[in-house]
Structure formats: structure tokens, C-alpha cells
Design brief:
436 residues; alpha/beta; 9-stranded parallel β-sheet; 3-stranded mixed β-sheet; 16 strands; globular
Length: 436
Amino acid sequence: MNSVNKLLQALGHNTILHYDKWTKEHEFTSGRKKWIGNILPYELLGRSVKKAVESIVTMCECEEFFHTFPENIESPNYGDKWGRLANYIEINERAIAEMHRNLTKNGLLSAIKILPAIPPSAKSWANCIILSQIFPNIYGDGYNKGPFEENSIYGIKLNTGYSGNIIDFEITDKISAEEQLIAFNDLAHFHGLKTGFRTVISADQIKTAYPDREEGFNWCNPEHQEIFINDHVKLINLGFECIFFDSAKHIGGYDCANYTGVGDLPEYGQMQYILNEIRARSGKTTLSFVGEKSSGDFDRYKNMGLTAGTAFIEPDDFQNVKQWAEKFKFSRDYAPGIEVSNDNNPGGSRYEDRLNKINNCLFAYEYPSDKLPSFMQMEDLFPLRYDTSTHHLMMTNPSYSTDGTPLSHWKNLFTTDDGRAYNRKAAELFVHALNL
């Protein structure tokens, strides 16, 4: 039995799927590419996982309805260098997890529910979902706190499995944590998306767990380095094809005057070795390694083994982006990218400015094969409430529920009528882009 069907059964559903009329009523179409738009996130998050699966199958690009989820789903094939052109869309699945009073759980199930509203990949380039959290965070994993109490995703534990914010541990007797991650990846791939996850490399933001103790991470400790590599290879072997490295610009002590992480970073040659080992041990030639702000000295990052960087080119100027796309059109292994927003976004940007940046990410080139990689956040598709921001939700984990239920949290986390109108306008941009 495939992992999706196993997940459905573990959640108490049967595996027979039905055509979803609600999906067809909210569907956006670009050629044969389909997704849900003109919505508010709670309309999807309040549905069951089975409804999410039925929604994804209803929008199948093959235009065939599968009454049970098919076996042997493969990742969309854009060649080994797909990451050089991709749009990376980060989903903070902890923020959209189920908030039950002070508990935070089942973020991966929420990510599955939101998948139908993520535009699939275009003809010429891939869209890739980046999950903000996979590993347990150091303080308060599985719990939400007040809106100004630190509970950072940027502090992680290795060698101890996966986060209680993300995995449904109430059903692991029926479907393991690893199989839940495989189910997410299979559904994302079926919907036409690549997948990846964020990781941190600042030593003082990592703990190494053992059965009887925890240790602070040390890049000079060969055992710690081996644990780092193996934990990331395990995730690649579950279907992820991209890793986003926080603070990658500063690896090897580069430009550390602007380094805001905590603790030592790997040396340049050490990071080359780590990336090569992840590729070699996973046996995958399609991996994309994206570095935060890894731009400026482009050869430095290309030779390190990265595929794309972020935040180099001013995203507001269409002609400037197009000129840089022209400059890098012959660079097929690595290119600097543009951002609609990043994980440090403080909020407050105008909807018109975000839509303009999305437009430039999707269209600022002469030919689709010249396109630069881009990076955006969940908020760039589904605007957050006005008193929070992407960065705030990375650093803290508040529940916005007024009655202790997940649905109330989902309704209050995002904006309402203007958020729906924004989501429609963003979807309309993707309508024009996905057929290119």
C-alpha cells in the first residue's frame, strides 16, 4: 500500500476517492495546469486530509480521475539542473499547524491541505515548496506560546527524528513519521511540485541528541558532521530534492560583519564535502542546494556546490531583472536569484509591491530558459494578519485562536476579504506564466 493510502487509513478514512465539485468551483487553469485560487487558507485548512487528496486528484494534469491514489509517483522531471530556474515557495507549516489550546501539532497535514492552492510547475520551470520546519526546535517543540515569547524554528535538534509540531505522532503506530513525509512528497509531486526543506548551519543553533544526553553542535567534531550529513540524506531519501541553507553566504567566514546567526559555520572546503556527500549518499543527481543570500562572489557559491542564491537582484525593477537574466543565461549550474520576500520579512509591504515582484519573478526574461531562480514566502500567496510577519512566525509560535480550536487560529492568522482578492490577483499572474 502506498503512503498516501496508508495515511488516509491511519486517519480513519477509506481509500476510495471521489470527484470534488468544490475544487472545480474554485479552480484556476493554465493550459492543463490547475490549482485553487480566490480563496482564504482556512477554507482549505478546515477540510479533511481526504478532501485535500481528492482535490489534488480532481485537478490531475492528465485529466484522468483516479478512484484510488496511484502507486509509484515520480517527481516532476525538469532535468538534473531544474533548481537553477525554479521558483521556491516557503511554507511555514508550523504556523498553519493545528493549535489545540497550548499544543501545536500536525503541521504536515496542514501542508497537505494547503497544497491544492499552490500553483504547480510551468512547462519550462519548476515550482518548489520549501518546508520551514522538519527537525524538532530546541525550545518548546510541540507547544505554542505567547506572541512575544521566543520559540524559534532557527534552533534545531539533530539525531532525534522529526518535530512534534509537524508529524502526527498519534498515528505513528499505523504510519511512521517517515511514511507521513513520503505521503506529503507524493501528493506534492502528483500536483506538479518539487519539494525541499530549510535547514540551519550555525553551530550554536544546533543540538546533537543522544539517548542519554544532548550536546552543542561542533563543526570540528567528525561525529557531529556525520550526523548532520546522515539526517539530511534521510530526508532526501524520503522524496525531498532541495535543501535551503540558512546563512549560506557566510560559510568559510565570508562577509561575517553582516552575519546574524549564532555560532561557528562550516569551512568552505568542509561545505563542499558535505554537499558532495549528500549527493553521493542519496544517489540523486537532481538535487538543488539553495543558499540564503549566496550572491556577490558567484563563482564562490557555484564552486561550493550550490544551485541558486537569493536576494542579489533588486526585484522591483523589471528591466534590471531582465538584464541580469540575460547576463546569466549561459550559467546553467548556478545563478543568483530574486526575492519577493524572505524569512526575515518584517511585514507591512504593500500588496501592489508584492504582486509587482511576483510578476518580475515570473516574466522578467527574454526566453523562459533564461529565467532566474526566485524565492517567496507563504505570505506572498496568502497575506498574513496585519500585526504579524513571516519573521515573527519563524521566531515565535503564537496561537491566534479565540476559542482554543484550530479553525479559529486559521481564520485569524490570515487577512480576510482583501486577502482573498490578493490571492486571486496572484493566481492570475501564475495563469499567464505556467503555459510558458
